[in-house]
Design a protein that fits this description.
Length: 579
């Protein structure tokens, strides 16, 4: 058992408690973080060069999106060699140096684990595809055509069918994502053994855990039944037959035995689960079951999807968002653990999406951060979020790089007669993943200090004023606010262990909750709207009595005298009282 890192020696944690409950995780999407060699693509050395930024912020863990060898069809989520670093990002030696540098600073490294699928250029798939009698044929999911077409009606996440015909053998292979991301057959024990071996290899190299990509999709219903087709849709939804499928818990428990059980407790795992419900998450993260430490669920990031899915939007329904968070907080209150996020590399920027990136940019970035970070669970910060980075003002299809957006643009008919092109472009401009993938804005120079070359994707023009250099020494910056939130989590046990209670669940403007343990209570009050709001009588009375002597821990509008009666647009205040 190694000792806890200094930043993680939290006073509230008993020695047997898991360190990651007191931790804040920072996600790096390497191609967009920092480019050290001028080729326009971020790299591992770029990360090493910016570790001061992470240490200064105070985060405990770096989650690194894939840097493995890859044809980059899906920016590295299509892996052709799990044991190699893609030359675009550097070398294994660079990665070893990153691990050592992080450890020297008291931080940890969690790598992305993408094992629902590989690249079609992985040697395993090349062998599998070579002929029907290959010993690796069964490592992937091959089926004969049905009535001369796809074996079932499942659609791919990235448009079109989830099946691709291999002309030579006359069979189709399954790919839930791009056709260059064939799904592995986890029912084959050799596949599982090969994956566990690879995971052990990385852990032996010194990494501290894994973020597991779409890990709840690894067990498919063996009959691969057709899914329901939405009105107006072409392809069926197979999720009921591969989301948390029949053997997923068995496989995760086996993985735990083969990879994690014999190691010390300093590791951390988090599984990405598009289909997770609170009930499922409890199963996956109940420590007694030995599966995972945390899951990423998608409930709150689906609430603003319109009838046409992620590329259509409806306005934020704060009541629904609060109900969702509260349900998850309650479901995992006495078993399991939540992960807390607004942003990642697949989601539009939160300040543009849930907040207001024009008139109330600072206020809404800080209010959103606060309501998220002070809940129970482990918060995740996506690169640039700590600066309040916004969505990109996309105006042309040429500025997009993400295959999901480009495929959708093509499939949704923008190309046929062009009549819907503007509408579809507007949809991907709001909902597209490239919003999260524009380069981190380090300073106000050309290309935001991200690269000296030509960036692989355009830089957001607002880097002239929205950048790390401008915020670093400004106590009134979004960056300074995140720093305070992170420090608070490290200093206040109630943030880690306190009981969560949502207040006024039906209020459409106010996001309010308390956290309480035996000695301390916190009250979080945020006006999540662009209108000022009067506090209700009961709350005003409570503030004047129970909370009268409370300390103001955080307040994002210090210019506005906190009067206990009203909140300005996106005003957030956090009070603490000792019981
Ligand atoms: O953004 C999405 C597509 O609409 C999500 O549903 C996303 O596909 C889903 O979260 C799975 O994401 C993960 O696996 C994908 C990869 O493209 C994403 O970047 C990754 O986070 C396939 O590996």
């Amino acid at each position: 058992m190694t000792t806890l890192q200094p930043a993680l020696q939290h006073p509230s944690l008993r020695p047997t408690d898991e360190w990651w409950k007191a931790a804040v995780v920072y996600q790096v999407y390497p191609r967009s973080f920092a480019d050290s060699n001028g080729d326009g693509v971020g790299d591992i050395r770029g990360i090493i060069n910016h570790l001061d930024h992470l240490e200064d912020l105070g985060v405990d863990v770096l989650w690194l999106s894939p840097v493995y060898a890859s044809p980059q069809d899906d920016n590295g989520y299509d892996i052709s060699d799990y044991y190699a670093v893609d030359p675009m990002f550097g070398t294994l030696h660079d990665l070893d140096e990153l691990i050592a540098s992080l450890h020297a600073r008291g931080m940890k490294l969690v790598m992305d684990l993408v094992v629902n699928h590989t690249s079609d250029e992985h040697a395993w798939f090349q062998e599998s595809r070579a002929d029907r009698s290959s010993t690796k044929r069964d490592w992937y999911i091959w089926r004969d055509p049905r009535d001369g077409a796809e074996p079932n009606n499942w659609g791919s996440f990235f448009s079109g069918p989830a099946w691709e015909l291999d002309q030579d053998s006359g069979q189709y292979f399954l790919h839930l994502f791009s056709r260059k991301q064939p799904d592995l057959n986890w029912d084959n024990p050799e596949v599982r053994a090969a994956i566990y071996q690879m995971m052990n290899w990385w852990l032996d190299r010194g990494i501290d855990g894994f973020r597991m990509d779409v890990i709840s999709f690894i067990s498919k219903h063996p009959a691969l039944p057709d899914g329901l087709i939405d009105d107006g849709g072409t392809w069926g939804n197979g999720m009921p037959f591969y989301g948390s499928g029949p053997r997923v818990h068995e496989y995760l428990q086996e993985m735990h035995r083969e990879v994690f059980a014999h190691r010390d407790a300093d590791l951390m795992t988090v599984g990405e689960m598009v289909d997770a419900t609170p009930e499922l998450a409890r199963l996956y993260t109940d420590q007694a079951r030995q599966e995972l430490d945390m899951v990423f669920h998608f409930e709150h990031v689906g609430l603003d999807h319109g009838p046409g899915g992620k590329f259509t939007r409806k306005p934020l329904d704060l009541v629904a968002v609060k109900h969702s968070f509260a349900r998850w907080q309650e479901a995992l209150a006495d078993g399991g653990w939540n992960s807390l996020y607004w942003n990642n590399h697949d989601q539009p920027r939160a300040v543009s999406r849930f907040g207001n990136d024009t008139d109330y940019w600072y206020q809404s970035a800080t209010a959103l951060a606060t309501v998220l970070h002070l809940m129970r669970g482990t918060p995740y910060i996506y690169q640039g979020e700590e600066l309040g980075m916004t969505n990109m003002p996309f105006s042309s299809i040429d500025d997009f790089r993400d295959l999901e957006s480009l495929n959708y643009y093509r499939e949704a008919g923008a190309g046929s007669d062009g009549s819907r092109a503007a509408e579809i472009l507007a949809g991907i401009a709001i909902g597209g993943r490239d919003n999260a993938r524009t380069p981190v804005q380090w300073d106000n120079r050309q290309h935001a200090g991200f690269t000296t070359g030509k960036p692989w994707i355009p830089v957001n023009p607002n880097h002239t004023w929205l950048n790390a250099a401008a915020q670093r020494t400004d106590p009134g910056s979004v960056l300074a606010w995140y720093r305070r939130l992170i420090r608070l989590r490290h200093e206040e046990p109630v943030i880690i262990e306190g009981h969560f209670s949502l207040l006024y669940p039906e209020d459409p403007q106010l996001f309010a909750y308390t956290r309480a343990n035996a000695s301390t209570s916190l009250l979080v009050l945020a006006n999540c709207s662009t209108q000022p709001m009067a506090l209700n009588l009961e709350l005003t009375r409570n503030l004047a009595t129970d909370w009268a002597t409370a300390e103001i821990l955080l307040h994002n509008q210090p210019g506005h005298r906190w009067a206990h009666q009203e909140l300005q647009p996106w005003e957030v205040v956090v009070l603490r009282r000792v019981i």
